[in-house]
Amino acid sequence: MQNFDFIEKIWNDHSVEAKISSDEMLAQVKKDVGTLKNKSFVNIILMVGCIIVLCVLWYFLTFSSITTNIGLGITILSIIVYSVLLYKDHVLINKTDFTAYPAEYLTYLKQYQINRYKLYNSTYWIYVIALTVGIALYFIEILQYFSIEWRWLAIIFTFGWILFCSTYVRKIVMRREKDRIEALIEKLERLSAQFKS
C-alpha cells in the first residue's frame, strides 16, 4: 500500500505543460474572441428585440390605468439601461484587434471581466428590482381580466421565473463566463509571452 501511495504522490506532483505552437494558440484565441464577441452581440440583439416588442405592445394597446403605463415605462427603461451597459462592454472588447495589439486588448479584456462581474452582481439586482416593480405595476390592470386561478398562475409563474433566472441561471452563466474569460486571458498572456521570447 505504501508503494501505491508513493506512486500516487509522484503522479500528482508530476505536472506536464502542454507544448502548443503559437499558430495553434492564435487560432484558439481567435475562436474564443469570436465566440465572446458573438455572444455579446446576440445578447444585445435579444434585449433590443424585447424593447421593440414592449414598445409595440405599449403603442397598439390602450390601457386605462396609469399604473400599467408606469409599469411598462419602468420595464422598458430598465431594459434600455441594461442594454446600454451590455453595449458598452461589447464596444470594449471590439475596440482593438488583439492580433495587432495584444497587450492593449488584454487590458480591455480585463476591464471587460471587471465590468461583467459588476453587471452580474450589484447592477443585475437593480435591474431585477426595476423589472419586478414594472411587471407588478403592469399586472395590476392586466390581471383583472383573468379568473382568480389564472391570476395566481400568472403571478407565480412570472415571479418564479424571475427568481429562477436571478439565482440558478445567473450563477451558471456567471461561472461559465468567468471561466471562459479567465481562460482567454491566460491564453492571451501565454501568447504574448511566446511572442516576446
UniProtKB/TrEMBL annotation:
UniProt source species: Pedobacter flavus
Keywords: Membrane, Transmembrane, Transmembrane helix
Superkingdom field: Bacteria
Transmembrane segments: 40-60, 66-87, 124-146, 152-169
Protein name: Uncharacterized protein
